[in-house]
Structure formats: C-alpha cells, structure tokens
Design a protein that fits this description.
about 70 residues
C-alpha cells in the first residue's frame, strides 16, 4: 500500500472522541504543518466523512500513540 494510502485511527472532538477507523488518502503541508485528507467512519452517527485533518489527530493502525503522524 503506498505510504499515503494507509489505515489510521482518527481522534475526534469531545462529542465524538473516537478513535474512528479511517483511510489516509493524501498529505499536504500548510504553513509548515502537515494535514491529511482522510475518509473515516463515525459509528455512533453512521456517517462516512472525508476531510482535511491536522496530522496530530491521526494514528497509524498498529501504533500506540494517538499523537503520531500516520
């Protein structure tokens, strides 16, 4: 699987903290910070979302820290 196409856990906001299962689609650097285009599933709401998220909200599946860049 290409490095930008990997399974990740998405940390959400207080009302839906997750972790939510997702797939990282692409990376983009903005003003020195990394952002990822991620599709992820919010089980509680039954919603599939796709959005650009800050890298610190993602954890590569299999990593222990929820603060790692995927």
């Amino acid at each position: 699987m290409p490095p930008s196409r990997r399974h990740v856990w998405v940390r959400g906001p207080r009302d839906a903290p997750g972790p939510h299962p997702g797939v990282l689609i692409a990376w983009e650097q903005r003003d020195g910070a990394w952002y990822a285009l991620v599709s992820y599933y919010l089980e509680g709401d039954g919603v599939l979302a796709q959005q650009w998220l800050a890298a610190d909200l993602l954890t590569r599946v299999g990593e222990a820290s929820v603060h790692s860049r995927a």
